[in-house]
Amino acid sequence: MNSKFSLQYGTVEVVAKLPSGKWLWPAIWMMPTSSKYGVWPRSGEIDIMESAGNVGCRNRNPSWFISTLHFGSSPSTDMFGRATKSYTGEDLSKNFHTYKLEWSA
Fold first, then answer.
1. 85 neighbors 67 (Cβ within 8 angstroms)
2. Which of 13, 45, 90, 102 is catalytic?
3. Rounded-to-integer distance, Cα 63 and Cα 51, Å
4. Spatial distance between the Cα atoms of 97 and 30, rounded to a whole number of angstroms
5. Catalytic residue of the set 13, 50, 90, 102
6. What is the model's pTM?
7. Do 18 and 51 form a contact (C-beta atoms < 8 A)?
8. DSSP 24-50
9. How far, CA to CA in Å, does 87 sit from each of 8, 53, 75, 79, 91?
10. How would you write 76-102 as a 3-class SS string?
């Protein structure tokens, strides 16, 4: 599903049951409505949740996900490593889970 909206500061909650299977990379992410500071990643990207649908996909599994901020002056200098948090728990394809972003000034 592709849903678009615009917000500056606030809370975003998404309730989702992730798919499972080979070669899947489910994600819930936010891109800027305009590239005010330049092309990606200069204007940023917020990954509320990014996962992998199967065991063995880049050493990930269906119970793993990350939340990330992408920023920097060019794709080769994307600073996402300084703003990534990894989570592991139960298989995300078995039940619905709430993924939440709180954005403040």
1. yes
2. 45
3. 8
4. 18
5. 50
6. 0.84
7. yes
8. ---EEEE--SS-TT-TTTTT-EEEEEE
9. 26, 15, 24, 19, 12
10. HHCCHHHCEEEEECCCCCCCCEEEEEE
Kindly tell me if the per-residue pLDDT of 84 is higher than 70.
yes
Q: What is the mean pLDDT of the chain?
A: 88
pLDDT confidence bin for 64, thresholds 50/70/90: confident
Q: Is 45 a residue of the active site? A: yes
Tokens for 79, please give them.
Answer: 């600073």
Q: What whole-number percentage of the chain has pLDDT above 70?
A: 90
> What CA–CA distance (Å, rounded) separates 3 from 27?
13
d(CA 61, CA 102): 26
User: What phi and psi, each to the nearest 5 degrees, are found at residue 11?
Assistant: -120, 135
Question: End-to-end alpha-carbon separation of the chain, Å?
Answer: 29
What token pair was written down for 3? 């849903």
Question: Any idea how long the chain is?
Answer: 105
Residue 67 carries which side chain, given as an amino acid letter?
S
